[in-house]
Amino acid sequence: MRLKHLLKETIYYARLDGSPKRMMYKFLFTKTPLAKLTNTKLYNYFYKRRIKKFTEVHKPTILQIENTNACNARCIMCPHSIMKRTQGFMSISDFKKIVDEILGSYKSIKLVVITGFGESLLDKGMIEKIRYINENYPKIKIDFYSNGALLTKELSDKLLATKIHKINFSINAMEKNYKEIMGLDYKKVRENILYFVKRKKEMKKVYPLINFSLMILKANEEDIDRFIKQWMPYGDSVMTYLPLDWAGNKKIDSAERAPFVKKRWACIPLWQSINVDVEGNIIMCCQDYESKVKFGNVLKRPIKEIMNDPKFKQIREKHLKGDFSSDVCKTCDNWINSSLWWWTYN
User: What pLDDT score was predicted for residue 147?
Assistant: First the structure.
């Protein structure tokens, strides 16, 4: 990581989290000789203490709501094309009911992510949903993910008139093979995003923070440096990351390995996040794109009753014992970064 990029990422994480701590841990244990300490006996001793501290009391800090599971992209690394769930959109009435129930029950939640297994901006009610949280829960941060293809000038102006904490634009390729990887029009996506960036600058807004991401594949590994160089001037962060296989359901031709000795630890989303699918079901995590493991529907049952469901508690207990035999968990590879996750849990 070049110094200029490192400094920009440090500022980004400081603005994102209120502290550069997450960036510090990420850098130290992946980009320096300290990576060799990860998962040694000494490291594991302190890491286990950290996990114990934050799992004794269940206080989720993130609410992820799937406003839609429909998508306009055809990404080669995504199993959306084989998803069996019925595609749809969450109504504004259901959204309000879910937000009120969960934020009213868990005051520990600091962030709402309005994204699921689909393209957030396909939802015609997206602006209204953001405004509802802005007006009724002004201290809550809002993030969402998008491929940018539907980010018209009109929609950009409406989004910039609301209070959003961060937008992640999933770019994943350079122009030469963008169509092959994403199934979208690169020039249109770039034009859309650059207008948004331009208007944000004209309005002298710090937020939303803008992150550009690229999933590392054989098809784009030669373009990583050029990708960072091209997009860094336009955003607050540029992230490249290892691909996931969606709990064993999408085999991906990965081009990179983790920079430390791998060890599987308890999965932080089981404690940190509440994940709601488009129908209101509480699911285990975002990797369960088929909503296979449901603990209850928050439109029908109180959220605290669902989060304390014996089935959910059993899975968390199994994770703490190193037992990952539960459905979805047993074929998941998202644990590759579990050796660092718990340092960033506030």
Answer: 98
The tokens for 307 are 């989060």
Token reading at 173: 């390729």
pLDDT (tens digit per residue) in 68-89: 999 999 998 898 999 999 999 9
Strand order in the sheet with 166-170: 237-241, 209-215, 166-170, 141-146, 111-114, 62-65, 273-276, 281-283, 294-297
Which residue in this structure is represented by tokens 């207008």? 195
Give the predicted TM-score (pTM) of the model.
0.92
Chain centroid to Cα 55, Å, comes to 21
Kindly state the tokens that stand for 236.
């607050």
Determine the pLDDT at residue 255. Answer: 43
- Please, what's the b/e burial string for 307-341 (b: 16 or more CB within 10 A of its CB; e: otherwise)? bebeebeebbebbeeeebeeebbeebbbbbbbbbb
Segment 283-299 mean pLDDT? 93
* pLDDT at residue 133 tops 50: yes
| DSSP E strand stretches across the chain | 62-65, 111-114, 141-146, 166-170, 209-215, 237-241, 273-276, 281-283, 294-297
